[in-house]
Specification:
346 residues; Ammonium transporter fold
Length: 346
Amino acid sequence: MADPQTQATQETQETPPADRGALIQVAAAPHVSSLSLTTRRMMLDVLIGLVPVAVVALVVFRHYAVRQMVICVVSCVLAELVFTAMRRRPISVGDLSAVVTGLILAFSLPPIAPWYVGAIGSLVAIGIGKAVFGGLGQNIFNPAMVGRAFVMVCFATLMGASAYVDPHSTVNVVTQATPLTAARQMAPDAGPQWSTLVPELLGNTNGSLGETGALACILGGLYLCLRRTASWEIPFGVLLTVTVIGGLGDVIHPQHPFTVLHHLLGGALMLGAFFIATDPVTSPLTPKGKFIFGAGIGALVMLMRAYSGYPEGVMFSVLLMNSIVPLINRATVPRPVGGPVPQKQA
């Protein structure tokens, strides 16, 4: 008669894996809990959410917006094809991630930036921001912001605040200074500029394609949160932190021309909070970590707007917080129900 322990070992070895229970699938981020929440569906949701932003950009900037979006999207798709072929991987443009990267990059560029700025930014976004890390799900930095940071350094005169203004343009908005730049040029005690809030909300101001139309960004962002494509904790953390810090600034300097409402509606804050920071690959996994991540972005934005040489700080804030996402994940590991698992004594 066979030993019971030996017989149990033989039965375990002969039992097919399917009969032993569900297998644990190990894969790269993003991790989802629903099989219907595919990468393509998530990217399609982002594209739908960006429709209001694109409409406002087309109305305000007209042919400038069309040119910038076409250049960036086409360049990102071509770059995706090239780098995928170089790595001998299956064609992945069907997941629409390259299209989303191109659109977000276009929305972060000035409307009058030369064509090669968008093309180079797209090449860097796909090549350095995503492909060198192993492709979608492996990158640690937001690809669109990597491309934007590269062209910001290489073409500072074409990307700076003064480059947003074209005195010879036939589009009236492009001949005006951006709200953030105009606020810096005012006296600190000039008083709140309430007349600029409505244009900032509706989008009738100069800036990058996505820096205008805060209302459009909010509508698209709410759609993403309702669809659970974006985690609401991240934009909530961003906007809450900006509101608190900006509110304290209003109390300390009540005559400053830029109030907390200007900080919320001006610049790329809404676009960054809802569409850039919520990238599931480069953001934390836990709800607590997502809120900390968003709060960190909001705090860095306010710090850079107040003390740096840049009137805007969303891009650098997102990239800096992307770099510490692994630390946030480690520090916010959920506590098991009932407490830690008891360790067996030796």
